[in-house]
Amino acid sequence: MNTIPNVKLNSGYEMPMVGLGVYKASPSETVQAVEWALKGGYRHIDTASLYKNEKEVGEAIKDSGLARAEIFVTTKIWNDDIVSERSVEALKESLYRLGMDYVDLLLIHWPVKGWQKAYVDLAECVDKGLIRSLGVSNFKTHHLEAIKGISKLVPAIDQVETHVYFQERRILEYCKSNGITMEAWRPLGGAGSRELVDPTLVAIAKAHTVSPAQVALKWNVQRGVIVIPKSVHQDRIKSNIDLFSFDLSGEEMEAISSLDRKDGREGRDPDEYGQ
Ligand SMILES: NC(=O)c1ccc[n+]([C@@H]2O[C@H](COP(=O)([O-])OP(=O)(O)OC[C@H]3O[C@@H](n4cnc5c(N)ncnc54)[C@H](OP(=O)(O)O)[C@@H]3O)[C@@H](O)[C@H]2O)c1
């Protein structure tokens, strides 16, 4: 079984460097994927109220027989709940669906209108023990900078889209110098990824007898970024966490760094939300 290194967050809690993402996994796929993941050594699951599978994540964790304290669970407050100023109620609803009395990491899903109030309200839920670490998602450096004006609590995590073709180095540098850990969503480049057939990645994978997906994930881990690859296939779930029997050389890390592209973004630009 794989042993996954942890990162110590600014909240004092430890977070595994690799987790299972369950976006677009149906409820039944989620139960199966989480079961395979926990059996294969994962101890970190990333869900969201948007994904409509928090209940199944909670059930699969319960059925695993593992202690709650052994598993790191992330969920997120969806945009509608932020805009309508009901983030605390939404957190309680997520906890109810998960069947848990606290969440390890709670993220503000996008910096939509009202995110500042949500952040302040949710910071109080850290004090109440409902959230162990509070973080944000899809925050650019100007959003992160704005938090300094509204709360003393530095977010533990910024979960952003980042992968080989979209490296977000500026946000990573900002996070590193402000005690925030960066986490990558879409770390494989998503369904039908262009990156997993990139000749540089393929050549590096061949040299280490691993897959291009493992190289893409290891590159982020080696630069200090947490990854949460999604899969509903057992063989992929297994290999996506098998990242610690090889290391990328400095030269290989640099070769991958040169693959960053201006058109690399796959999802929405957070500034489209107008905040
Ligand atoms: N905060 C946010 O706004 C946000 C946005 C998007 C995602 N997320 C989180 O980040 C997680 C990961 O992002 P994502 O799901 O968008 O994309 P991803 O993990 O980069 O890619 C998932 C896709 O890659 C396939 N795949 C998985 N392992 C593979 C492998 N070893 N080789 C080839 N293909 C493989 C999966 O197919 P199969 O499932 O069929 O194997 C799926 O189609 C999500 O599940 C979610 O938890 C957060």
Commentary on this structure:
This protein has 275 residues and is α/β, with parallel strands linked by helices. It has one domain (14-262): TIM Barrel. It is 39% helix and 15% strand. The chain contains eleven helices and ten strands. The protein has helices at 27-39, 54-64, 79-83, 87-98, 115-127, 141-147, 169-177, 199-208, 212-222, 234-240, 250-257, and strands at residues 6-8, 14-16, 20-21, 44-46, 72-77, 103-108, 131-137, 157-161, 181-185, 226-227. An eight-stranded parallel β-sheet has the order 3-4-5-6-7-8-9-10. Strands 1-2 form a two-stranded antiparallel ribbon. Strand 8, helix 7 (169-177) and strand 9 (181-185) form a beta-alpha-beta unit. Helix 1 (27-39) runs parallel beside helix 2, helix 2 packs across helix 4 (87-98) and helix 8 (199-208) crosses helix 9 (212-222). The longest helix is centred in the first third of the chain and has 13 residues, at 27-39. The termini are far apart. The relative contact order is 0.14. The mean pLDDT is 97. Bound molecules: NADP nicotinamide-adenine-dinucleotide phosphate. NADP nicotinamide-adenine-dinucleotide phosphate is lined by residues 21-23, 46, 109, 137-138, 159, 185-191, 196, 211, 213, 228-233, 236, 239-240.
